[in-house]
Design goal:
Layout lengths: L3 E4 L4 H8 L6 E2 L14 H15 L7 E12 L2 E3 L5 H11 L3 E12 L4 E13 L4 H11 L18 E6 L2 H5 L3 H9 L13
Parallel strand pairs: 1-2, 1-3
Antiparallel strand pairs: 3-4, 3-5, 5-6, 6-7
Helix pairs in contact: 3-4
């Protein structure tokens, strides 16, 4: 078993999710280029970035199990990034209104000592209600979701934007698919239900 579990992310959302497993872990920012390659599909991009994030920390953490995760949202074939500001968030939510948005969350575990890496992509689809501009503006005013792909926070008022959710694990939508992560951790001999350590 690797001596240290590391989450290759600076995201407070992913950190909070991983804490739910009660495993001791550290976090570190991977600092990679997250731009899509020409013609790269959303799912392929999410998988590649998750793998690259874990590999980016490999050299400095030679005895670790490194978790990389990345999420890419798409609506009508277009990738939705983090809006970064109010105007872009409004534009994103107007595009999503009445449509479905699929979130592809790449997940990769890399054991640095052996160079063994296992990876997967989990998907989760949300179906947006038809939204008026005043509704969108009110939502953005209340939650300021500028650092969230798709311009919403499902763990908050964002749930009011949807008609239906379709997926296995709601945590996938937040950014770290815990159900699948537990499966992958098991491949490296880690079971949160057998661990007595608290994070």
């Amino acid at each position: 078993m690797a001596s240290t579990l590391i989450l290759a992310s600076s995201s407070p959302y992913r950190r909070a999710l991983l804490k739910q497993l009660h495993l001791p872990f550290q976090t570190a920012s991977p600092h990679i280029n997250e731009d899509a390659k020409p013609g790269e599909a959303a799912g392929a991009l999410a998988l590649r970035l998750a793998q690259e994030k874990s590999r980016a920390l490999m050299r400095d953490n030679p005895q670790s199990l490194i978790i990389g995760s990345d999420q890419v949202a798409e609506c009508r074939g277009q990738i939705l990034g983090k809006p970064g500001n109010r105007d872009k968030a409004i534009t994103q939510l107007q595009a999503c209104s009445g449509n479905k948005v699929t979130f592809h969350t790449g997940l990769s575990l890399l054991e640095s000592a052996s160079n063994r890496q296992v990876s997967t992509v989990e998907t989760f689809t949300v179906y947006f209600r038809p939204l008026s501009l005043p509704q969108i503006e009110k939502y953005i005013e209340l939650e300021e979701p500028y650092d969230c792909a798709g311009s919403f926070k499902v763990e908050g008022l964002g749930i009011a934007l949807f008609e239906k959710l379709d997926g296995t694990d709601i945590n996938t939508l937040i950014g770290l698919p815990l159900i699948r992560l537990v499966d992958l951790l098991g491949e490296f001999g880690i079971d949160p239900l057998k661990s007595t350590a608290k994070s």
